[in-house]
Each structure stands twice: as C-alpha cells, then as structure tokens.
Task: inverse folding
C-alpha cells in the first residue's frame, strides 16, 4: 500500500509539472489545475495500473539519443524515397515476436517502431507485432532488436524475464 | 552589453537555420502523401517526416525564445505530438489491416 501511495504521488507530481509547464507562474490557473491534476492522476492509475517495472534514469539517457538518431534517419529515409525520381519502394509485411511484457513496455515498443526508419507497427496481438516496412531490403531485424533492448533497459526488465517469456 | 547581444544573435540565427532545416521534411512528408501508392506507405511519409520536421522547428523556436519556460513548453508540445501521431498512425494501420486492405507490393 505504501508503494501504491508513492506511485500516486509520483503521478500527481508528473501531471503537476505538465500543468506548470503549460501555464507558467500564473497562480490562478491552479483553480482549474488542481482538480485537473487529481483527475488525471486517478484516471491514469485506473487505465495504466502501476507495473512491477521501474524506469531507469540511465536507461532514459541512453534511450533519448538513440530515439533522436533513429527518427532523424527515418525522416531522411522517407524524404529520399518521396523526392526521388525513381521508385524506391519495396514494401511488405513482417511479423515480430517480442519478449517485452504486456503493458507499457509493449505499447512503447509498438509506438516507437513507427518512428524507426522504414517500419510501422500495423497490428499488436499478444506478443506478436505485425510490421509494415517501406523496403524489405532494410535491416529491419537489427533495428527492431536494438529498440527492444533499449526499452528493456529503460524499464529495468531483467534478462531472466526475457528468457522466460 | 555588446557580447550579450552578440550571443543572442548567434542563438537567433542558429534558430532560424534549424527552422529552415525542418521545412524540407514537412515538404517531403506531403510529397510522400501524394506520391506513395497505398495507405500504409502514406502513413510512413506523414508520421516520420513530419515528426522530424516539427522537431527541427521546435528546437529552432526554442533557441530563438531565449527562455527556459518557453523551451520546456515547446518540447512538451513536440512530445505530445509524437505520442499522438504514432498512436493514431498505429490505429489507422490496424483498422486498415482489419478491413483486409492489402499492402501495395512491387
């Protein structure tokens, strides 16, 4: 229960920071802000119950540059294919089975696949993700495995857990 | 007084440069939307190119603003757009899959 309270206060802190960034130092805005933050924290606990995984700060700092580099590659890749005179597309569907546990880890995984170069998550069924790719010649497997390990490090998902599932 | 102003100028012009760098991404996102053959490939064009374009524009504006509060607000906006666009991209692709729309192949 103590753990649960701590999670609740963490979420209140998180949503308060979001409100503070959006509204600045205007104190009267908190008339709306306080109820909004409380409702958002309650709803978020209902919709996304606290998981057993804790976010690792070192993982976050490794994930951000990885994510920025990959999305830049993705953008340049699309630009090249959109503006080229020749047809550079060779699309197809691939299926990938992830070891990431159900919940926020898997959802973050599915969402960031769409920002990697040339891949887009089209369907998520249990631990299997259907991926649409712009070019079957791209190193899709290497990219997706890299993303998977970054997310595992981010959520402190241990290697034993990976092998079990 | 003078060095401070010079410093601001450098920030301002690097901001302009970043914004200009972002524009071709928006352009190619739209060109891709028109030129690509099916719904899936068009989703690629929109989500990836526009997110990078917005990233450049947001960082350019953040440099020009010269204020941490505005920078934080801009970054938050970018983050929210990233989440919204990747989630809606996934939902559109999923509903296309469920309607049995076959991807275009070469």
Result:
């Amino acid at each position: 229960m103590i753990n649960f309270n701590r999670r609740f206060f963490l979420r209140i802190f998180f949503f308060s920071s979001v409100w503070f960034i959006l509204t600045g130092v205007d104190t009267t805005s908190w008339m709306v802000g306080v109820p909004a933050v409380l409702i958002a924290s309650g709803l978020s606990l209902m919709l996304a119950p606290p998981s057993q995984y804790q976010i690792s700060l070192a993982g976050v700092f490794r994930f951000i540059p990885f994510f920025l580099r990959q999305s830049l590659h993705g953008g340049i890749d699309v630009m090249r294919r959109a503006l080229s005179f020749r047809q550079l597309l060779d699309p197809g569907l691939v299926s990938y089975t992830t070891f990431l546990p159900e919940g926020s880890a898997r959802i973050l995984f599915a969402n960031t696949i769409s920002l990697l170069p040339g891949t887009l998550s089209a369907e998520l069924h249990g631990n299997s993700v259907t991926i649409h790719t712009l070019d079957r010649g791209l190193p899709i497997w290497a990219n997706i495995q890299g993303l998977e390990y970054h997310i595992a490090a981010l959520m402190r998902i241990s290697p034993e857990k990976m092998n079990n599932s | 007084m003078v060095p401070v102003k010079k410093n601001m100028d450098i920030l301002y012009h690097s901001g302009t440069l970043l914004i200009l760098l972002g524009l071709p991404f928006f352009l190619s996102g739209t060109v891709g939307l028109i030129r690509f053959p099916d719904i899936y490939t068009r989703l690629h064009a929109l989500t990836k190119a526009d997110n990078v374009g917005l990233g450049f524009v947001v960082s350019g504006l953040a440099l020009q603003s010269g204020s941490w509060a505005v920078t934080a607000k801009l970054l938050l906006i970018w983050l929210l757009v990233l989440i919204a666009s990747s989630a809606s991209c996934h939902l559109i692709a999923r509903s296309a899959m469920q309607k049995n729309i076959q991807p275009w192949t070469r």
Notes: The two ends of chain A are 28 Å apart (CA to CA). Chain A touches chain B at residues 18, 21-22, 24, 68, 71-72, 74-79, 81-83, 87, 89-93, 110-112, 114-115, 117-118, 120-124, 130, 132, 134 (CB under 8 Å). Chain A has six helices and three strands.
